[in-house]
Amino acid sequence: METAWAQASEIAAAVREGRASASDVVTAALARIGQRNPALNAFTAVLGERAVAKAASIDKAPANARAALPLAGVPFAVKNLFDIAGMSTRAGSKINRERAPATRDAAVVSRLETAGAVLVGALNMGEYAYDFTGENVHDGPCRNPHDVSRMSGGSSSGSGAAVAGGLVPLALGSDTNGSIRVPASFCGIFGLKPTYGRLSRARSFPFVASLDHVGPMARSTRDLALAYDAMQGHDPDDPVCADRPIEAVTPLIDRGIAGLGIAVAGGYFRIGAYPQAQTALARVAAALGAEAEIELPEPERARAAAYVITASEGAALHLDRLRTRARDFDPAVRDRLIAGAMIPAPLVAKAQKFRRWYRARVLELFARVDVVLAPVTPCTAPRIGQTTFRFGGIEIPLRANIGVYTQPISFIGLPVVAVPVPLTPLPIGVQIIAAPWREDIALRVARTLEQMGIAAAPRPALQAQD
Amino acid sequence: MKTRRTKTQAGKRKPSAVRARSAAKAAPKARPHPATPELKERDFIAAAAHVLGLVIEPAWKPAIEASFAITLRLAASFMDFPLPDEAEPAPVFAA
User: Residue B63: which of A335, A341, A412 has the nearest Cβ?
Assistant: First the structure.
């Protein structure tokens, strides 16, 4: 079968049914990585030997065992903050390359491989995940497959570029303030940031403990659902991972949107949005019949509080490295972390108090609606090297502010599917936001938009040249 | 408000989030710390770096000062948001 642009679900079905071998699928993926990665700089490590061995083990498995694997033979790659046994977990940094090799895979990597997926590599990312651009001073910028002169977005930059560029159908990212959703928007793919505490973060390198999430990125809603279901389940190795039963969503995504109350976020989420972001949001809202507008309470303050908590907790995490290895940081990350280390404690305490107040008010809204729509990014992918952009009539730093619409959502751990709207020349994403633990609803809405042709991962010209 | 922001960005005003001056006005009998009236953000950064054991090279200062000023400005937006004393913080958030 031709796997260059195949979805994970299609590959898995073919391998399960014997129409394709996992070895052939993985060999083809490794070849694509070798061919396309020099242009995109998405991968920082390719695990050819490991991947070929894993694929062979799937092909040798009894047919009935292979038939039970929901992700049989699906190549995937992970942001390089996830532990991979035998490798140092660099988390986009220079400093972490000196760490001892990981002895085990990250929990979510293990769970995907248990479901039959095959890890083929580690992916570029913004240093220590403190980034929205995809630029990395150590490994070089990750490039957008739709225009290699433009940013992939970050910090899960390689995850966005690898999936959008057709190198792999599935990748894992992490999202503290928008780091799955921003690259999904810029690169034109689907991304799921689950509810805070839903998926285990065990054996991944942290950034802001009280805000860190992990999740899948793919070219279809079904692939998000398959990967998400494979990764669900309590994990005592992550103290934040909720002790909840697995709530499989794959069987639910085709249920449509009948009966769902869907509203568009107004006010703050309209200010500063470029015409492309407004067009994408309008298309999605019109397709869903979402005419009502809803005001989230104090989203600007919520974003500010998320910013302060991030700066403070992130700086605390890295304080020793800032003391001893400051010159080895990406300067753009270092300077923000040093500033974060100096935030007076009362500001952080107030931010955490505000967080609980905000959560309570937002949850009241979900008694009235099931889904809130909002832009992911104010604009399409900026050019690599761009440091500022106009937002609300003011020129502001780009790296710190691309997440203005994502931060008020992840601040209280709400589940979000970022869906790509294939505008020309560049795609842009829309957030489908649901109440805590209702990933199923966000995915149903995303799937509906996909079936209507409103949301789709556009195949870049890079692909057409193959 | 515009004037306040301009001053913050220029690093010429006292840290609004600390609000030492307004606190002193609200409680005139309280004796302000001798250093407080002269404290500038860049002085605060230098002092905090000393306390935290951080070495800041001269070339890094403008970006650090700018980032700190932005953080204080953003913090000011929720610091004046009224919440009761009993409001619980959420240091480990649970959805």
Answer: A335
Distances A49 to A30, A86, A96 between C-alpha atoms, Å: 10, 13, 24
Residues of A annotated as part of the active site: 79, 155, 179
Q: How many helices (DSSP H) and strands (DSSP E) are in chain B?
A: 4, 0
The amino acid at B32:
P
Across the interface, whether the CB atoms of A301 and B63 are under 8 A apart is answered no
Q: Which of A424, A412, A408, A414 is nearest to A375 (CA)?
A: A408
Global ipTM:
0.90
Rounded Cα–Cα distance for residues A419 and A400 (Å):
22
What span, in angstroms and rounded, lies between the C-alpha atoms of A187 and A182? Answer: 9
Whether B14 has a pLDDT exceeding 50, the answer reads no
Binary contact (A304, B75; C-beta < 8 A):
yes
Nearest to B64 among A339, A353, A354 (CB): A339
Nearest in space to A139 (alpha carbons), one of A44, A223, A65, A55? A44
Give residue A463's pLDDT: 54
Amino acid B93: pLDDT: 57
- CA–CA–CA angle A207, A213, A215 (5° rounding): 125
Q: Does B45 touch chain A (CB under 8 A)?
A: yes
Whole-angstrom Cα distance, residue A52 to residue A61? 14
The pTM of the whole model exceeds 0.80: yes
Chain A residue at shortest CA distance from B62: A335
Interatomic CA distance for residues A34 and A30, integer angstroms: 6
Give the C-alpha separation, B29 to A319, whole Å.
38
Is the distance from CB of A170 to CB of A117 less than 8 angstroms? yes
CA atoms within 13 A on the CB side of A15: 36
Q: For the purposes of burial, counting CB atoms within 10 Å of the CB of A72, is it exposed (0-12), middle (13-18) or buried (19 or more)? A: buried
Q: Give the per-residue pLDDT at B19.
A: 39
Quote the radius of gyration of chain B (alpha carbons, Å): 16
Partner A contacted by B79 (CB < 8 A): yes
Tallying the residues shown for chain B, one arrives at 95
Nearest to B54 among A304, A308, A338 (CB): A338
Q: What pLDDT digit, counting tens, does each position of A404-427 carry? A: 999 999 999 999 999 999 999 999
Over 50: is that where the pLDDT of B15 sits? no
Pairing between β-strand A170-175 and β-strand A75-79 as defined by DSSP bridges: parallel
| Chain A to chain B Cβ contacts (< 8 Å) | 126
- Integer Cα distance of A191 and A432 in angstroms: 10
B89 at interface of A, judged by CB pairs closer than 8 A: yes
